[in-house]
Hints:
The protein is of the alpha+beta class. Among the domains are: about 1-305, PAS domain (Beta-Lactamase), CATH 3.30.450; about 465-525 and about 535-575, Histidine kinase-like ATPase, C-terminal domain (Heat Shock Protein 90). The protein has helices at about 5, 10-75, 75-85, 90-110, 140, 145-150, 195-205, 230-240, 285, 290-330, 350-410, 410-430, 440-455, 470, 480-490, 535-550; strands spanning about 115-120, 135, 155-165, 170-180, 185-195, 210-215, 220-225, 245-250, 260-270, 275-280, 435, 460-465, 475, 500-505, 510-515, 555-560, 565-575. The chain has a five-stranded mixed β-sheet with strand order 2-1-5-4-3. The chain has a five-stranded antiparallel β-sheet with strand order 7-6-10-9-8, sandwiched between helices. About 25% of the residues are buried. It holds the Pfam family His_kinase.
Amino acid sequence: MNPFRMFRIDYVFFFSFAAFIALLITIMMIVSYRFSANEQADSASMYQQAVLQQLNKQLTDQMSAVEQTSLAVAINSPLVNYLTMKGDYYARKTARDELNRDYLAPMLNSSRSMFSFQIYMSNPLQVDPNANIQYLPLAYASRESWYPAVDKADFVWIGQREVGSPQGKQQVISFIRKITTPDGVNRGILIINVRVKFLQDILTEDNSSASRLLLDSGGRMIMHTRIAPPPGEIDAILKEVSGDAGHAHQLLEAAGSLPEKNMLTVWSRTAPGSWMLVELTPWKDITGGSVRLAWTMAVIGAAAILLSVFFTLFLSRNFTVPIRKLVQLMQAFNPGKKGLPLPTEYRNEFGSLFSGYRKLTERIETLYQSLEQQYKAQREAEIKALQAMINPHFLYNTLDQLNWMALEAGQEEISRVLELMGQMFRIGLSGGESLIPMQDELLHVECYLKIQQFKRGQGLDWEIDCPEDLRQLLIPKLTLQPFVENAIVHGFHGRSHGRIVLNAVQEDRGIRIRIRDDGVGLRDDWKTRRRHPTGGYGIRNVTERIQVFFGPPFGVSLRNRTGGSGTEAEIYLPKLTQQRDLEGGRSDVDTRDRG
């Protein structure tokens, strides 16, 4: 469907221009948002990777120091001797106190990162779960969640957990190392608990609001800042991680604690196989500037659309007003009547259109008047020609009959025929009138039938049935006789007898006259068969005159009779009560029942 063919031009022009501006602004918003968002993400990820690498180095130094400390403690002779000492309680207590006072306590006090020691051994003297240096039964280790990892390795980092202290529960991460003799015998387990707060201060020293995760080489979370994602989301994050550093735009589907699922993920690891720092930043924080830019463009676009709406409305109205005016003039134009005045103030193409339309209407008016005069003259000439053509035709046939009768009959019959012909000629002339009373037309038919009876004798019979009230109505003269003549000449040809029945009835819309004979009837090809030079002319003349006088639905129809032989002619005429002005002036036809 082409809108330029269906709707008003001003509406199409207005909405098309507004839609184009809106589409252009929308495309610009989307493109600018995409490019600026990607640029901001790339810039932010480069900065975050540099920060993570720096933080990773600091964490590496701190955690490497913890690992080295654990190694020094694990091979410390006083500790190993204490773990293997057997003897009285006092000697073992003295050895433990000296170990704490001279070695372990100074080590804790000198470190900002280490919070406490936990030593699992076979037979500790006492268990204090809130001390900074705790000695715990080795059998307890197998109950801890971290034990399976330690059982398979000599040392391991484990994630955030709570441990007791004199100050209450504290959040720590722990480095666990087995204490073994040179010959490989396990004597205990050493755990160094590192303050989480200390490491978090390192990770947040740039005041970043992003969530940062510290993962070990196996992808397990050791510690975090702000929000801790569940294992399902960590697995989703690791699917995009490749290489020692990089970034990715991720939509995390796993349900978890992250308030936003649309994230920019940046990661960095110091060396292959070591722990990794991951930073999660909500995508909306990265693209906030792009969104503001897009909304700014949307506001500018809305203002542009608003301005374009007024401009387009003004332009479309001024463009389509003369076109609508021209359409109104064309719709209101009626030949012969005064139309609406044409605008004269236009000097452009619209002025040329109005000037051309003015010349066109003037030419149409001239042609209309000329055609009206030609039609009136042609109509009068056709009627007069058709009226005049019937008299020579009838006279020819009548003279032919007179010639035959002169040869075959006596003078008395010729006198009677001439008398009947005189009546017929008087009716045919009828003072120059085209319409005569039905009574005169029926008399004209009877005269013709009587003349034909002289030829056929008693072999010709007829019946005329017409109510008295119809005999005063007017019909075109010489309308019925050609049908009676056609029945005698063609229907009774070669026969010695025949009967003709004429009846007239009044209907709601006019007068219907039927002329039936019992002759041979119509041939099957009578409509397409070439007419005989002496036959069918009168009927065609009547048909054409009725069409010129009245037009549809009035006319003539011919058909074979049903239920018997012969032909039936039907003439349908309007009810006429007075003479009709054929030149189109005074109307004297009773048209109340015309279709």
